[in-house]
Amino acid sequence: MKSTQYSEKTLEHFRNPRNVGTLEGPNVAVGRVGNPVCGDMMDIYIDVEDDRIKDIKFQTFGCGSAVATSSMITELVVGMQLDEALKVSRGDVADALDGLPPIKMHCSNLAADALHEAIKNWRAGVRPEDATTTPVEKSCHPRPAEVAVVEIANLDDYKGSGAYTRVDDLSALADQRVVVLDTGDRAAQLAIDLTDHTSRVVLMTTGKEPSVSSAVRSALRLSDVKLLTEAQPLELKGEGELERIRVHDLNEDEEYELTADALVVLE
Amino acid sequence: MPDVVYADYQSSKPVDPRVVEAMLPYFAGTFGNAASLHAVGDEATAALERARAVVAGFFGAQPQEIIFTSGATEANNLAIIGYAMRNRRKGDHVIITEAEHISVLNIAKYLEKNGFRVTRAPIDLHGRVSAKKLRARITDETILVSVGWASNEIGTVQPIAEIAEMLGGTGVALHTDAVAAEGLVPIDMSLVPVSLMSLSANDIYGPRGLGALYVRKGVQVAPVLLGGGQEHGLRSGTEDLASIAGMAAAAEIMTAEMPAEVARIAGIRDRLVARVLAEIPDSHLNGAPLEPSDGRLPSNAHFRFDGVEGEAMILSLRDQGVAAATGSACSSKTLEPSHTLISCGLLHEEAHGSLEFTFGRFSKDDDVDRIMAVLPGVITRLRVLSPLYKAKAHA
Known about the structure:
The complex is a heterodimer. Chain A is α/β, with parallel strands linked by helices. Chain A folds into two domains: 8-130, Sufe protein. Chain: A (Alpha-Beta Complex), CATH 3.90.1010; 155-264, FAD/NAD(P)-binding domain. Chain A contains eight helices and eleven strands. Chain A has helices at 8-15, 64-77, 82-86, 90-96, 104-107, 111-123, 185-194, 214-222, and strands spanning 28-35, 40-49, 52-61, 163-164, 178-181, 201-204, 226-228, 231-237, 244-249, 254-259, 262-264. Chain A has a five-stranded parallel beta sheet, with helices on one face. Chain A has a three-stranded antiparallel beta sheet with strand order 1-2-3. Chain A has a three-stranded antiparallel beta sheet with strand order 8-9-10, with no helix packed on it. The longest helix of chain A is centred in the N-terminal third of the chain and has 14 residues, at 64-77. The radius of gyration of chain A is 22 Å and the shape is elongated. Chain B is of the alpha/beta class. Chain B folds into two domains: 5-11 and 258-394, Aspartate Aminotransferase, domain 1, CATH 3.90.1150; 17-253, Type I PLP-dependent aspartate aminotransferase-like (Major domain) (Aspartate Aminotransferase, domain 2, 3-Layer(aba) Sandwich). In chain B, 37% of the residues lie in helices and 13% in strands. Chain B has helices spanning 17-23, 25-28, 39-58, 72-86, 102-113, 131-135, 160-167, 241-279, 310-319, 339-343, 348-351, 367-385; strands at residues 5-6, 66-69, 93-97, 117-121, 142-146, 173-177, 196-200, 211-215, 283-285, 300-305, 322-323, 354-358. In chain B, the strands form three sheets. A seven-stranded mixed beta sheet of chain B has the order 2-8-7-6-5-3-4, sandwiched between helices. A three-stranded antiparallel beta sheet of chain B has the order 9-10-12. Chain B is globular. The chains are: A alpha/beta, B alpha/beta. At the A-B interface, helix 1, strand 2, strand 3, helix 2 and helix 8 of A face helix 9 and helix 11 of B.
């Protein structure tokens, strides 16, 4: 079945999603789930009163079914007792949408998981600003990040052929995919400066936020530097010169390879 | 066709009505089997060879170097598997790139299961493979390098002439899948020493279900389809004369119209790129820049939008009468994002946010206006839904 062969009800929820947004207040909790492999991420906010879901809102990055399942579950559980809401399963959501294409049943049907997470967080007293698992920068109150001390096993093998500890001539990296390791303001500033020479500059940090001053953080946000958080470089790969970096995704505890021509680890 | 803006020429092209016209006599009129010895068969033979000469001429080839197949997928199978099997005693190593079409990627996997070694050469930021990177991977066992002339996805044109020159004298054959490039960039086998080249009729506005493999004189290939020994024994099966006549008609039209057509298509594409990047915040062009113009197919505009997922964009655009494509995992059978975008260095979340428009012969000048009447609204709506999107202006 083609991914676009959704039921009319699924399409209707995609076109007119209910309860989009966020919630605030003393009785609000959030559930955040994400699956970076298929690219779906959801936040479900619940406002709880007398152990019931008084109000519910969602935000979703994802495909048609990701949006529709989020919207559907908010309709299904609003007003429900928390215990009852915990029993609402992925299957219930899919059924309420008159079914989902089989390929979408797993990846894009995370709304029930996000709801359960929200209820768990509520019961554990986890406030929205402390809720974790979102694999990208999200928090409005960044925790102080520690300056990354990163050991890359074979960094020396690529010294001068992709791995650099200093960059004197920025134009030497023109049109290259440059990854700058977050080692503080100087590294972040270098990353920003490099965007004049190449369209692809990634600032990689092991923290949830780069370990930079607030002025540099603002400059970063306005720049074309791509921020890659909670990522730790493990190993460099390539035929004679750097071609890929093996990266540990600290949030998902998974490894993947990032294509890159240059890695800058300032001394 | 319903009144949609069709901007997915890379997936399929309408058959030119003039081509349909040229095909019609070959269904009930000239219906013979070219293998038959009677006059009806001779008429078919004459038509077949006329068509072969026209197709060959369009690509700067000799007629006997063109083998008609059921499509470019079959041509890729014949080229890569046929060449590898026939030349196995010379070596067991094949090199492809990370930007190849899935039909080449899966053939490479098949070869690996059958005892060959396959190396995938990396591409740069713009999706381009360099002759240098390829050369670094050639060993004494290498028999074949396969590089698509252009990426079907991001439209990056590969330096085929440079690669062919680099391979000159090494004894390593060069195969190119030229499907994405044909009709959009000049392809002349008398100038570029490619050994094998896969072609599709539909990509020059001919019928679907027909392709061809160019096999340079002297290059040895084993057949993958066995039978009556048609097409110099390389592709058994009675020739599909109507479709072949259609491909020839398409080549003739393309010969006459390509320069003006390419300029017009590039103009539409350039206007879309300029407007998207100017009018939609946090939008990016994937692949090669528009200049120099020979680095990118003139038909291709491939974007990504921060914080928005591709399938959701396609669904929304479909509701608003625009047909486009995406490299997002959610639209693929494997739920993996585009391997080409990942190899260009994009993160998964970025590859998921890609949107591809490809234009062609029947694209209208106001297609850009119609796309831009709806696209910014689609992106805004999905960004409101998205927990990932924080506009730079708000930061």
